[in-house]
Amino acid sequence: MRHPFLFLFLSALEEAISFATPASYNYQDTGIILDRTKHVTFSVQTCTDATIGLKHDKHNNVNMYEVVIGGWANTKSVIRRTPQGTNLGQCATNNIVNCNSAVDLWVSWAEGVIQFGTGKHMGVNTACSYTDSVPYDVRFLYITSYTGGAGSWLF
Hints:
- By secondary structure, the protein is mainly beta.
- The protein has one domain (about 15-155): Sandwich (Jelly Rolls), CATH 2.60.120.200.
- It has 1 helix and 12 strands; from the N terminus they run βββββαβββββββ.
- The chain has one helix at about 70-75, and strands at about 20, 30-35, 40-45, 50-55, 65-70, 75-80, 90, 105-110, 115-120, 125-130, 140-145, 150-155.
- A 6-stranded antiparallel sheet has the order 1-12-3-8-9-10, with no helix packed on it. Strands 2-11-4-5-6-7 form a 6-stranded antiparallel sheet.
- The model is unreliable at about 1-15 (pLDDT under 50).
C-alpha cells in the first residue's frame, strides 16, 4: 500500500508501515520523508536483493544512493551512487537476508558515510560502508526487490 502524503519523522514513528515488493527491479516510493533523520531501521523478508534507494529528488534517479543487501544470490551487498551504477562499497554478506523469516537491518547516510548493518540499533553490526566525498542530501526512501524474489518490508 502506498502512502503518497505520509510525512513521518522516523525517530518518532509509532506505527509500523508495511510494504510488499514484487520480484522485479522497480522502485516503490514508500512515502517516507527523510529530511529530519540520517538513518532508517526496518525488517525485510526476501531471498535476495533487498534494495534501498535513498533519493535526493523524487522525480529522477540521478542523485540516489542504491544499497543492495543480499545480492548475487544472497552472497554480497553493494552501495552505489546511482541505480545499477558502479559498485563503490562492496562486501561479502552471505545469507544476510532470509526467505523464511524477516531480518532486522538499518541503513544510515550521515556526513557522507553510507552504511548498513544488521539488528535494530543503527551503527551496530555494520556489514558494509562507503564514504562519499561529495554526498547527496537524502530526502526520500524507495525500496525494490530484484528478480530473485519478492520482499515483505516493515518500517
